[in-house]
Amino acid sequence: MKYDAIIAGASFAGLAVARVLKGNILLIDRKSEIGDGQTSTCCSYEHFIKKIGCEEAILQVIDVEILHCGSEDIVFHLNYPLATIDYKKFCQLLYKKGNTQFLSAKILGIEGDKVLTDKGNFQSECIVDASGWQAVLASSIRNDFVPKNGKSFGIETTPIYKNKAIEIWANPRIMPKGVLWIFPCGGFSRLGIASYLGKTNIKEGLESFVKNFGLKITEELHGGFFPSKFREPTLGNIFLVGDSAGQCLPLTGEGIRPAIYFGKKCGEIIQQIINKEKTREQGLKDYRDFAMSHKKYYTFLLALQNILTNIPNYLVVRFAKFVNLKPVFKYCEKKYIDLADLN
Ligand SMILES: Cc1cc2nc3c(=O)[nH]c(=O)nc-3n(C[C@H](O)[C@H](O)[C@H](O)COP(=O)(O)OP(=O)(O)OC[C@H]3O[C@@H](n4cnc5c(N)ncnc54)[C@H](O)[C@@H]3O)c2cc1C
C-alpha cells in the first residue's frame, strides 16, 4: 500500500508532524496505544502548550525554579511559567488534531521508499524518522548515525509529594556531572536523576535522593537516553525530527518543545510535497536548511553544558547568580524560549 507520508514514531515529534498533514498518512509506533510508554518528566512552557491547544493535559503550572548548588540555593522567578503535563492525555490531544491512520508495529528499517515493519512493508515518497534517540530508520542505512557519545541518561519516579517550585540540584555528590530534580504535578511529583555522561547505573542514586524526602521509588519508574548532540536533519530520502535528529536542547534537556517546533515545520514542508507544490528533493533541502540554521544555538548550549559540568561548584553558583540578575535573566529567558517557539 502506498501512502502520501509515513511517520515512524508516535510521540512528540511524530505527532507534531502528523498534526499538520492532510492526506493518506500512516503513523507507526511499537506502542499499542497513542500515549503509552512515557519516558520524560513532561515539563514545557505553559504558553507553548496553550498555543498547540493541549492545555487540558496540564497538571501544574510553576513559576519558581530553585537551583541548589553546593550550599547555595538560587531562586529564579520565571516570567514564562512552566507546566507539567499528563503524557498520555497530551499525546492523545495532539493525535486528535491530525488525521492519520495509526499502526502498532515494530519498525525494522528502511529500503528505498519502503518502511519495513514486523507487520509488513509500507511505501511512501515522504518518510519521517521520529523514532527518538535511536533513529531506527536512519540507523538502518548508516549504522554510525547515532554517535556513541553525545547523549545523557535519566530516570525518574512519581511518588505522592506536593511542591510549589521546580527544584534542581546541579552536580550533586550522588550524581557528579549530572542533576537531580523535583517537578511537581499537582498531587504527585516527578523525582529524577540524570547523567550528562550517559551513565545508566544511576538507580541507587535516585533511591538515596528520594530517601531524603522520606519517600521510596514507586512502581512507575521510567526514563531513557536523550541526545545532547545535534545530528543531520535529513539522510537520503528521510526527514528526521525530534530526538532522532538530536534536537533535544543540551544543558536543559528540553526536548518536547523542539520536537514539536521542528515537527510542525517538517509537516508543513511535506504537505507542500503532497500538494505537488515542491519536489521531494526541494522539500528535503528546505527542511535541512531550516533545521541547520539552529545548529549554532545547540553548539552554544552544549559548550555551556560541558563547561558547567567541569568547573567547581562555586563557579557554577557565580554563573547562576549572574544569570539571575533581573535584566540578564529577562534577556536570557526570552532568547532561550525564542530558539523553538511557535508564532
Ligand atoms: C528522564 C527524562 C526526562 C525528560 N524531561 C523532559 C522535560 O521535562 N521536558 C522536555 O521538554 N524534555 C524532557 N526530556 C526529553 C524529551 O523526553 C525528549 O526530547 C522527547 O521525548 C523527544 O520526543 P521524540 O518524539 O523525538 O522521541 P520519543 O519521545 O523518544 O518518541 C519516540 C517514539 O518512537 C517509538 N519507537 C522507537 N523505536 C521504535 C521502533 N523500532 N518501532 C516502532 N516504534 C518505535 C517509541 O515507542 C516512541 O513512541 C526528558 C527525557 C528523559 C529521558
From TrEMBL:
It comes from the Bacteria. Gene3D superfamilies: FAD/NAD(P)-binding domain (3.50.50.60). Signal peptide: none annotated. This is NAD(P)/FAD-dependent oxidoreductase. It comes from Candidatus Nealsonbacteria bacterium CG08_land_8_20_14_0_20_38_20.
